[in-house]
Design brief:
2 copies of one chain form a homodimer.
Chain A: H1 16-30, E1 37-38, H2 50-63, H3 79-90, E2 102-105, H4 108-114, E3 125-129, H5 133-141, E4 148-149, E5 154-155, E6 159-162, E7 180-184, H6 196-209, E8 212-216, E9 242-247, E10 260-263, E11 269-270, E12 273-274, H7 275-286, H8 292-300, H9 304-330, E13 335-337, E14 343-347, H10 354-365, E15 367-368, E16 370-371, E17 382-386, H11 391-403
Parallel strand pairs in A: 1-15, 3-6, 3-7, 7-8, 8-9
Antiparallel strand pairs in A: 2-10, 4-5, 9-10, 11-12, 13-14, 14-17, 16-17
Helix pairs in contact in A: 2-8, 3-8, 4-5, 9-11
């Protein structure tokens, strides 16, 4: 008799955003007259930029003619895209990354879920608390997390790094030594960032103890301050201890278009085994490339015109960051994040539970956010709002919250 | 110190098609004057059909406007696509599949590589020999295959079902009882098919012993004979023992466009645990949907116009099947497959090794095929050609082979 992967049964509840989606759908069905505004799931609202649209149409036309039709893409992604990434995301910042260290994928979520596969089952992971659920859940699924304790809301074999008001919502180096350290800056969900000298300490630590950092830089396009690094490879020695995951979802509005990439440096090794060929093998075996037309669209954001449009697009959402931050502050809320990051992290009023605040917000203001506790126990009593709405909806949502 | 997934180190050599790609690239570089024809990797050559192109352009336009822009897709895929699949691929054949049993993905390769994840590590898999490498490799990566023996070219914990001339290139029920059985019909690489009453025997067997069949039906669109089933669910009782994987790659020319789906019936259970929510959880955690524009394009093949075009597209390749089959037969080759399937399986002349025949064909005829031994030891002495070339290239390739 076949058996199932028991590790799946250790997962508590369903995936956070699926749960929110179901709650919102139920509310809408029960209240068809209400206009619900979502500042919840982190989905973008602006259309794709002109250069991207142009590139998509042009690539579609190529697919219509036998002479220019494209079949299977190269395993690591098209060279035109990997070269654009190398030059614009790395070389321009003084970072030397080779094209065969760049793996184009269908998005950062897939990569951050799949990357754990190339590590041994006995590796101990360290994650921030609160944290993007995919890091933990994917390790639970592969049996690396141990057993869930519903009272502490923690897995027995995971090292949690609390990110609280006391730590300025940033992790501190844990007392127990981890093998794999998940870091995400600018942070989801708290919107906190890390200065280059602080990140250098993590890199030095990882190199010292032989840990691998999985660095999720999905939100780097939102960085405005000079001393906040866009890539972990801006730190010395990062190539021997870090994998970096990047997304087109938020900078280029690709949440429904799907494109991302992961950098696995060739120098990154466990003893004599380099991780780069292992990830290449996974890519070649369990993935067949992002669609050609999507890769062509991705390359378009690196043209001069494309870059200007992306800057404007990010600027649009950055205005929302300010509206949310200023509005909540003026209403007496305790808030952080929202600078260098599209996420605003707010303390719930009167210390109410995160999910209770979710329900209040949904039922009374018809605004959807994300309960902080959904990201981990240290997120209890906090709430995440995103800057990805339209200006109009964001302003309206903040007005509604003020009236609560 | 972090460690790597040692299972990856058990994989012999690199992924078959990557190896072929490297060999061909090296040959082309050394022989820039030679025109190489590939009937190898199974990549299509015809452009996308008019309906698909129209749907792509239209969906791209939707992404250009805030009112019609689409962000994250629903976890399982857009309902418009899942309904089209349910109605056209199943209901039309008398098969009742629910929309929430259909999971849209970025392709059959990803699904056939990832599906093993939801099964326990102790499950014993059975595969055909020769076989599409992804089934075995993905199980090796997760530690389910045991140790590779380079002499037998087999993994210690895998049950191999030889598909040889003696078995008419179809598997026979193995003497040792498996937990998971991978079946692919029409078959890759041999091009063999299975009649409905034969497939029913597998379904009955799986239900009897409590095995789960992973049924890869990526090539079902090539079926022309009435008694060959398009879906395993045409067999009675299949919903309690089978997962079905489908692809848009070959029927709609989506190899570089990326779309597929997997059906996991709710009735499929290991004791009390249904596999459907486990796959849903994986989908929700490690995947973020196929791009909206690609899903819209996928739906276009189910319109009346789309269906007519697909029929014509498949017909184009079916002409190649005939050219290859007839040409090789007239040249004295022993061939099978090529009916109901885009793959032609040929015996190498004088029993030369598959890779030697690959080299001869590449060097002397400048034609690329796939060595049968790359699919497993029982493929030794065989060679796979695909019908996915252009008419001109296919005819020319066969002429060149005849001249060898």
């Amino acid at each position: 008799m076949f058996t199932v992967n028991d590790n799946y049964l250790k997962l508590p509840g369903s995936y956070l955003f699926s749960t929110i989606g179901k709650k919102v759908a139920a509310f809408k069905e029960a209240n068809p007259d209400k206009t619900v505004i979502s500042l919840g799931i982190g989905d973008v609202t602006r259309p794709l930029t002109s250069s991207v649209i142009k590139a998509l149409h042009s690539a579609v036309d190529e697919m219509a003619s036998a002479d220019t039709f494209k079949g299977y893409s190269p395993d690591l992604g098209y060279l035109f895209l990997r070269e654009a990434i190398r030059d614009n995301d790395y070389k321009s910042r003084g970072v030397d990354i080779d094209v065969d260290e760049i793996f184009v994928s269908d998005g950062a979520k897939s990569d951050s879920g799949n990357i754990q596969e190339i590590f041994g089952a006995d590796n101990k992971i360290a994650v921030c608390d609160p944290v993007y659920p995919v890091y933990v859940d994917s390790n639970v699924m592969s049996g690396r997390a141990g057993i869930y304790n519903p009272e502490t809301e923690r897995f027995s074999d995971v090292i949690y790094m609390p990110c609280t008001k006391d730590t300025n919502f940033a992790p501190e180096i844990p007392s127990e030594t981890p093998d794999i350290i998940y870091l995400c800056f600018p942070n989801n969900p708290t919107g906190s960032t890390i200065k280059k000298d602080e990140l250098q300490k993590w890199v030095d630590y990882a190199n010292k103890v032989g840990a691998c950092i999985i660095y999720d830089a999905a939100y780097e396009a939102f960085i405005t301050e000079d001393d906040v690094p866009h890539s972990i490879y801006e730190c010395e020695g990062a190539k021997t201890c870090a994998i970096e995951i990047r997304s087109f979802s938020k900078n280029a509005g690709f949440t429904g278009t799907r494109l991302g990439f992961t950098v696995v440096p060739k120098e990154l090794k466990s003893k004599d085994t380099s991780l780069n060929p292992l990830w290449a093998r996974r890519h070649g075996t369990k993935f067949n490339g992002a669609p050609y037309i999507i890769q062509a669209a991705g390359a378009a954001i690196y043209s001069d015109e494309g870059k200007a449009e992306i800057k404007e697009l990010i600027g649009y959402y950055q205005e929302n960051q300010k509206v949310i931050l200023d509005g909540l502050k003026s209403a007496g809320y305790e808030v952080s994040g929202g600078v260098n990051a599209p996420y605003i992290w707010l303390k719930t009023p009167d210390n109410v539970k995160s999910w209770d605040f979710f329900d209040t917000l949904l039922n009374e203001a018809n605004v959807v956010g994300t309960p902080g506790s959904g990201f981990g126990p240290s997120g209890e009593g906090y709430f995440r709002l995103t800057a990805f709405g339209t200006h109009e909806a964001t302003k309206e949502a903040i007005e509604r919250i003020k009236r609560l």
